[in-house]
From TrEMBL:
It is found in: Cytoplasm. ATP binds at residues 28-35, 145-148, 174, 182-185. Its EC number is 6.3.2.1. It comes from Psychrobacillus faecigallinarum. Catalyzes the condensation of pantoate with beta-alanine in an ATP-dependent reaction via a pantoyl-adenylate intermediate. It catalyses: (R)-pantoate + beta-alanine + ATP = (R)-pantothenate + AMP + diphosphate + H(+). Pfam families: Pantoate_ligase. (R)-pantoate binds at Q59, Q151. Belongs to the pantothenate synthetase family. SUPFAM superfamilies: Nucleotidylyl transferase (SSF52374). Signal peptide: none annotated. This is Pantothenate synthetase.
Length: 282
């Protein structure tokens, strides 16, 4: 595996692999089993695999955890090598954003729901970095985890709407044995919070099961919120059920329902979700 830090180096290597299928996984580092699953799938489906590690300042708000975001490039390099990555791109912020153009990307109305409701500009920053990475790497397929379901929906819509010549592949959430979704931010949980955190996924299952039984979305969400409040010390940012991938209210024409939540603990904000295909559960 080769590791490069500059755009010029990246482009020079990519130019030698344009006749091959290129799989790409964008990460912010501190890799875990969820990332490894993305990398392994990219390796299985492509001739050349590129991964990036870049803690993107454009998607962090002024009071968010940019400086505290966990970093361990030595460990990440080892995991990427073991997963069969051919090229690792590790740019600095100055390399990715050498000047301020004044040109922005607006992720639109879909970005104002769920995480976007309390993180204005977050998904604008996500699209800013992935658009640059897609242009530089020119992947055949790019892989994103379903744990960030809103992000996955927005990137898919962006690629389709603006005719990026690649396929976005969503990969199911990877979980610990107790159900907690794997996340780089789990390292910030206290021992007590780590014991409580699996209740987030249990609450989503409770919401799903209650809705399937009663067809009462509001009642199902209320029951799930009560469960989190009674079983964790976390503070709910949101817990909602929306049509997926549009993130519009559920109606009689909805085919897939996204149950999604974000919960604040003292030093970590955890997100999780599940997507229910209505035809498969009827």
């Amino acid at each position: 595996m080769r590791t490069v830090q500059t755009i010029d180096e990246l482009k020079a290597i990519i130019s030698n692999h344009k006749q091959q299928t290129i799989g790409f996984v964008a990460t912010m580092g501190y890799l875990h089993e969820g990332h490894k699953t993305l990398l392994t799938k990219a390796r299985a489906e492509n001739e050349f695999v590129v991964a990036s590690i870049f803690v993107n300042p454009a998607q962090f708000g002024p009071n968010e955890d940019l400086d505290r975001y966990p970093r361990d490039i030595e460990r990440d390099t080892k995991i990427a090598t073991e997963a069969g990555v051919d090229l690792l791109f590790v740019p600095t912020p100055d390399e990715m954003y050498p000047f301020e153009s004044g040109i922005t990307i607006n992720a639109g109305e879909i970005s104002t729901k769920l995480c976007g409701a309390t993180r204005p500009g977050h998904f604008d920053g996500v699209l800013k970095v992935v658009s640059k990475l897609f242009h530089l790497i020119q992947p055949t397929k790019a892989y994103f985890g379903q744990k960030d379901a809103q992000q996955l929906a927005i990137i898919k819509l962006f690629v389709e709407a603006y005719n990026f010549p690649l396929e976005i592949v969503g990969v199911p959430t990877v979980r610990e044995e107790d159900g907690l979704a794997k996340s780089s931010r789990n390292v910030f949980l206290s021992e007590k919070e780590r014991d409580e955190a699996p209740h987030i996924y249990k609450a989503l299952n409770l919401a799903k099961d209650t809705w399937l039984r009663t067809k009462d979305i509001e009642g199902a969400i209320a029951k799930a919120k009560q469960y989190i409040n009674e079983n964790t010390s976390g503070k709910i940012d949101y817990l909602e059920a929306l049509a997926y991938p549009t993130l519009q209210p559920v109606n009689e024409y909805t085919e897939e329902v996204l149950f999604a939540t974000a919960v604040f603990f003292e030093k970590a904000r955890l997100i999780d979700n599940m997507i229910v295909n209505i035809k498969e559960v009827q």
